[in-house]
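DUF6175 family protein: structure tokens wanted.
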Amino acid sequence: MKHCRLMCIVSLILCLGQARAQNFGDDVQYISGNEYAVTLQATGVDAKKKEAEAMAIKSAFNALMHTGVDGLKGGQPILSEKKADYDYRFFSDERYVNYIVGQPKTLETKKIGSKQRATVVVSINLRGFRAELQRNKQVISPSWADAKQTEATSALNPTIVVVPYTDSNDGYSFEAMRRRVEAHPSERYAVERVAETFQNHGFKTRDFVRMLMNDKTGDLLRSGTQTDDATLVVQQLPGDIVVTVGISAQRNGNTTRISLEAKAVERQTAGRLATKTFASGYYHTTDTTMLVREAVKQIESGFFKQLQASFEQMINKGREVQLTFSLSETVTDWDFDQDSPETGDYFKDALDEWLRDNAFHGIYDMSQSTDKYIRASVNVPLWNAARNRSYTLSNFSSDLRKFFKKQLGENYKANVTSMGQSMSIVIE
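Answer:
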């Protein structure tokens, strides 16, 4: 009996591993659909024809959940987190069959070596599928969440970009980062492995190393348009959170260890979210790559939870932005204590009303002002619930320019300069 029970457990573990290792196809295309149902074309590969057809259908569901489909919700997946246990149950118990509308249509099957490849068109009940995910407490991404539900913002999954650490000797430009990873293969390896670890914990990542190495972008990154200012560089990176990875070696007799320090900051404000150092342990080796691999293994799930919690706290509170408004020396015929040239509204009242309307939870302050200078602060949201998409400081800056154009017309121009959580607005 004990032997039988042991064999059952082993079989279950093997099946679990096989289910989690399914090779879902990434060729999934949007054909048509609405908020209730969607029709997709997907390709699957497996040993037999029927298994390949089933894999194609599973691939369609997997793409909806985790990778997104071009043409549907901006290519964003339904889920912002991947939970392997739920995926295993969903596919191994064939729950997905409950959300297939009509009969899937096989367009083509073709033998590829010892495998069969099938292309299938399948229609999916989106409404029921999303209800299934929500019942099982899966985290719905903001693009798919109900914009009327304020809790949708807590599901925002930030995009991570991982970069190498540079100091004043290297410089802080893109060029300095490029030189760093080219000159130190172990640091490039560390950046790649840390990015991979973020992916394994359900975060979206951007491959910054590949961007640096890409010939098409190389000229742009080396053009000198970036200043040697770490904050400015961070603000130009393609992600919500920038994780800087630095490594250092410590020797103890004939042994060596690598310490890997990871610092996470919010891209636009450079606000620190999480900092942690992970050590490989001492080994009788000088193989830096091997030691980096061991250090990466020490990264605990708590680090990622801290990062997610910090970002979600920022979502709940918004970004506090400091604003200064002043007049150029060339403006001699108008000031802030007068009516707006274009609308005739008293300018300070109009600005106060605009700040109130655009402040997150109505949090703003405009108590310091003269006829030629105004100092204000405003909390800016990270997520635009009405439009169901992210809201950046660049979006806020653009909206502010529109306000000034409406109030001042064509005879005056608002020159907005942004630096992290500060904006300087000069009327010219």
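The chain has a mean pLDDT of 80. The chain has three domains: 19-144, 159-314, 318-427.

Cheers.
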